[in-house]
Write a structure and sequence with these properties.
seven-stranded parallel sheet; alpha/beta; 13 helices; about 40% helix; single chain
């Protein structure tokens, strides 16, 4: 069977969805030697070089600019079954057999004001509804995502399969120290945007710091493109006089990230919405306690191996910081439970679920 995988990918800054896509493809191509794969992507993506070691795949780069899916796929070599990496499917190219990978629907809760943003959300909803209706299978990366598909789009849940993702085993990487980091610090990893909740982390740290002045807060990740949100974070830091205690690192390498995880008092990751939550498992692999949200997919991924807090409450986040700082036995228990939790997730398991669903297609 020739399986077509349709994905938007950029090799310039492979983070977030790009890294997830690359890890998924590598896992599937490594484990599935019985099928052939055609990976369709926008021209100039760089994905061909990233997958050059695999002999069971060809990367088909398609022109036509922003219309590469809507027009370009008509002219590309055909596959037996297609998998669309996200529900932004073409309006007119509708193969008879296809599946969709669904991640999250954060745009429903966090969006810019105005008519343009409203119309964009409606358009994304229309594409998703079309994709879910036409597809035979939907691969949701968490039970939470599955529940959201049913709630938002009234989709038949019998065709939605939960496919948990794997994670990067940070503990196996050589650690590269990051200069200028205090001995005691809490760590946030992720893009500094509203849905990730760094503003409430800073507010919580400000309250915590009043009784624990020897701790610092380190935020590693891409800066927010939302000007008002950046200004709100800067305002809290200035008002609380935390300029020397809160450090923004921007993007860091995997080796630097391994060092940060390994030396942090805990990962603080109280997002409002996540389809999965890779940092929880990365931290656990590095032996780092985790503080995360009691909403979205995060309790599903963390299980009992993290302190769960209300992401809308800086007081609740501050309380969790205090518990980790003051209770060595709690910190030890969280580390041990985190290591045990890792057995539930691997890219090998993800690949098995992925190929298992595709085997159900009848090509007769």
């Amino acid at each position: 069977m020739n399986i077509g995988f349709v994905t938007t990918y950029s090799a310039q800054h492979p983070a977030g969805l790009e890294r997830c896509t690359l890890d998924l493809l590598r896992a599937v191509l490594s484990s599935d030697r019985g099928n052939r794969y055609s990976v369709y992507t926008k021209k100039g993506s760089g994905l061909g070089e990233m997958l050059s070691e695999y002999r069971n795949v060809r990367v088909v780069e398609i022109g036509f600019g922003k219309f590469w899916k809507d027009i370009g796929l008509f002219f590309a070599p055909r596959a037996d079954v297609y998998v669309f990496n996200g529900p932004q499917v073409p309006l007119f190219f509708a193969p008879r057999r296809y599946a969709v990978v669904a991640y999250d629907f954060g745009y429903h809760a966090f969006f810019a004001p105005g008519v343009r943003s409203y119309l964009k959300r409606k358009f994304l909803d229309a594409l998703a509804r079309l994709a879910f209706r036409r597809s035979q299978h939907i691969l949701a990366i968490s039970q939470h995502t599955k529940d959201e598909i049913v709630r938002l789009f009234s989709t038949d849940e019998s065709k939605i399969h939960v496919m948990h993702l794997g994670f990067a085993d940070i503990a196996t990487l050589p650690r590269e120290p990051v200069a200028g980091i205090a001995e005691k610090f809490f760590l946030f990893v992720g893009t500094l945007k509203e849905r990730k909740n760094p503003l409430n982390i800073i507010r919580a740290f400000a309250a915590f710091h009043k009784t624990h002045p020897d701790y610092h807060l380190v935020l590693a990740g891409k800066p927010s493109s939302e000007t008002a949100y950046r200004e709100a974070m800067a305002s809290v830091i200035e008002q609380e006089r935390l300029e020397a205690q809160v450090k923004f690192l921007g993007r860091v390498s995997d080796r630097e990230l391994a060092w940060l995880y390994g030396n942090a008092a805990a990962l603080v990751y109280p997002s409002f919405i996540e389809g999965f939550g890779f940092p929880i498992l990365e931290a656990a692999s590095a032996g780092t306690p985790v503080i995360t949200s009691n909403v979205s997919s995060l309790p599903e991924i963390a299980g009992d191996a993290a302190l769960l807090v209300d992401p809308a409450s800086p007081d609740a986040i501050a309380g969790a910081l205090k518990r980790v700082a003051d209770d060595p036995s709690l910190r030890h228990n969280l580390i041990q439970k985190g290591k045990g939790r890792l057995n539930q997730f691997s890219w090998g398991k993800t690949a098995q679920q992925f190929t298992g669903v595709l085997k159900t297609y009848n090509l007769g």
